[in-house]
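Section 4.2 – Deliverable D4.2 (structural model, holo form)

The reporting period included a commitment to supply a predicted holo structure for the target in complex with zinc ion. Inputs used:
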Amino acid sequence: MDCIFCKIANGEIPSRTIYEDQQFRVILDLSPATKGHALILPKEHADNLFELPEKVAADAMNVAKKMGAVLKDRLNADGLNLVQNNGEAAGQTVMHFHLHMIPRYKEDGQNINWKPHEPSAEELDEICKQITEA
Ligand code: AMP
Ligand code: ZN
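Output (structure tokens):
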């Protein structure tokens, strides 16, 4: 399979690696939203979160916790966004699971945001039912 993140994660293509273990490589994003924007890449291919084994998903969050703190500390960031896109509709452009770590700085001019809707109580009830009822 011709997957660029497989090649990067497994060291076939060089990258700016800030952390590596048996399961993951963490690299600097080539087109960063902010200084230190990094990607957590599992070495084993999975298209997206739905395909990712549970253990890898859990371990990815632990890497985010550890490396998020390192980024915040080393780069003097004021905050951190974790962003993870699944599917074209959600903005995924590389079809190999990756978890974005985006250090945030006061007045960095970035905007990870959405336009809030104002559903009625009935609409929210209906959505809740649709998700939870058999
Ligand atoms: P997404 O839109 O969630 O699929 O994000 C893909 C991310 O991968 C974008 O932020 C790109 O800038 C980044 N990216 C794509 N190719 C590379 C690469 N070769 N090395 C590092 N980052 C990359
Ligand atoms: Zn891959």
